[in-house]
Amino acid sequence: MWIALDRAVYHPGGRAVITVGQLPAGASEIKFQLCHFDEIVLEKTAAADEKTVSLVLPERDFTGYLLIARAADAAGRELGTAMTGVDCSSVWTKFPRYGYLWDYGETVDAREKIGQLARYHINGVQFYDWQYRHHIPVSPDTEKWRDWSGREISGSAVRGYLEAAHQMGMVGMNYNMIYAANQSYRMDGSGVDASWRLVRENGEDFTCDMDASRGPVGVLQYFNPLNPAWQQYIFAKEREVFSAFPFDGWHGDTIGEMGPMRTAEGGPLGYDENGAPITRVKDTYTQFLNAAKAALGGKYLAFNPVGAQGVENVNRSRVDVLYTEFWPWDRDDRGMPYDDYYSIHRAILRACEQSGGKSLIVAGYINYKHPAETFNSPAVRLMDSVAFASGGARIELGNGDGMLSNEYFPDDRHKKMDGALRQAVQRMYDFIVAYENLLRDGQRVIQREVRIGRAPVSADGRADTVWCFAKADAEHEIYHFINLMGTDSGWRDTEQTKKAPVRQADLSVTIFTDYPVKKVCLASPDTDDLTARSIPFEAGGGKEGAYISFTLPRLDYWDMIFLR
């Protein structure tokens, strides 16, 4: 039995059209329940032979729900159940769920691919490498062109994707670097001036060999993001994009931090708010992004500080959503590499704090370039659990039913999710929609002591522990239990050797908290039952303070406990 919706996201008070399929034999009616956390807010019953059912959703903005369909026979006996998440949000930026596209061939079935993304509730789509050239994103022929790599792009396919995405409630973000031109700029009459370029400290031009065999179009030249003439040029080109195609925003990209730079004239790139000279590209981000946001005329802005280098400057800028591509050799402000789960967790928390509550979209390529045809499921599920439990998002799903394994998105053709992983990921995205108001809706980090019988507990995601961390909002305390028993703490899994965590059963948990607990609720994306259910608990106190104790029946990957 399955359930499907007609949109990825709904406006508050909107009408959801629901389809239920593969009903069990003998089903005569379907009972629908719309739940917010552990409370039913709407109910409706329909005959089993109705092909579609509509449901008018609540008016509350930025709210996630769990929709449950229960098939029953004439005697009222339940025969089967299906669940999905429902997001009612007026804009996508509060709870971003980011996907991607890369296939723009003439024969592509845009509606089919967008429909597959909608099943995961994707609400923002990055159109990767759709453009003609980095410095001339709109082709002179908007019906057909070749991108820098020689791939043929159909303007009709781009428009078809955007039309289908908008119908499903998604936004389309046009991808382009913020400071790059193909070296063909020197002869194509674009107006890009060589005096705007960046030069390395040793005097060499700052360039990147994307594919030098293709000639000037295969080599990128980088320009000073703070050069006023470059800004005027690239912002005008982005406005041309919005005139030619109905994109909703710009996804800006970089190649990462490459050390001290200077202008072609030998001077600093610009000056910071204190008047100090800027010599690193990462320190241009805040000024550039604020200028870009002002120039875009109300369009959305996303940006990728590769390797999280300069991420703090992006977090403090006016971008609409936060996005970072993590690499395990890059380091955070403590000098620690971004190579384990705790480093990703910490980056998400800091981004939220520095940005005033925005949810960081994490790009991190699991099973990087490994030749196996399918992903190692434990690596994907653990990375998702960590990112989502921490209050972040992921970019991993796209181009229909694909999944990223490296930074060149068209390579997703070489590695796929198997059926079991696909089901697990669908459950995960249903879960993060249903409980978005507990995961990333203004929660703050709190410190609580947690003890578990028969299992070591860590607060920093160490291997062979149950990792527990806590957050709170005005109404709840929320505890996340991530199972790392029997597995390691590295997220990359390049060799596809990560083991599934060893399932834990009947874990005795004690939490020291003075929260006035009336109910302990458990929810998890690990099984088909995504409902929040009340579990028995005991409350007490002593020399160590007030506490509650309860039993976690089962922990596979991620359990969430919230106190009411």
Written overview of the protein:
With 564 residues, this protein is an alpha+beta fold. It folds into three domains: 2-88, Immunoglobulins (Immunoglobulin-like), CATH 2.60.40.10; 98-181 and 221-439, Alpha-Beta Barrel (TIM Barrel), CATH 3.20.20; 444-563, Immunoglobulin-like (Sandwich). The strands form nine sheets. It has an eight-stranded parallel beta barrel, surrounded by five helices. Helix 3 packs across helix 4. The radius of gyration is 25 Å and the shape is globular. The model has no long low-confidence stretch (mean pLDDT 97).
Provide the fold topology.
Blueprint: E1 2-5, E2 15-21, E3 29-36, E4 39-47, E5 52-56, E6 63-72, E7 78-88, E8 98-101, H1 110-119, E9 124-127, E10 144-146, E11 152-154, H2 155-167, E12 171-177, E13 180-182, E14 198-200, E15 207-209, E16 219-222, H3 228-244, E17 249-253, E18 261-263, E19 270-271, E20 277-278, H4 285-295, E21 300-303, H5 311-315, E22 321-325, H6 341-355, E23 360-363, H7 377-389, E24 393-398, E25 402-403, H8 419-434, H9 436-439, E26 444-446, E27 449-452, E28 457-458, E29 466-472, E30 477-483, E31 504-512, E32 520-523, E33 533-535, E34 537-540, E35 547-555, E36 558-563
Parallel strand pairs: 8-9, 8-24, 9-12, 12-17, 17-21, 21-22, 22-23, 23-24, 28-29
Antiparallel strand pairs: 1-2, 2-5, 3-4, 3-6, 6-7, 10-11, 13-16, 14-18, 15-16, 19-20, 24-25, 26-29, 27-31, 29-30, 30-36, 31-35, 32-33, 32-36, 34-35
Helix pairs in contact: 1-2, 3-4, 7-8
- CATH-wise, what's the superfamily of the largest domain? Glycosidases
Structure annotation, total helices: 9
Q: Which CATH C-level class of the largest domain is it? A: Alpha Beta
Q: Which architecture of the largest domain per CATH?
A: Alpha-Beta Barrel
Mean pLDDT value: 97
N- to C-terminal distance: 32 Å
What proportion strand? 25-35%
Using only C-alpha atoms, the radius of gyration works out to 25 Å
Name the structural class.
alpha+beta
- Pick out the low-confidence regions: none
Looking at CATH, which topology of the largest domain would you report? TIM Barrel
Domain count, please report it.
3
Give the strand tally.
36
Main sheet attributes: strand count, strand direction, barrel closure: 8 strands, parallel, barrel
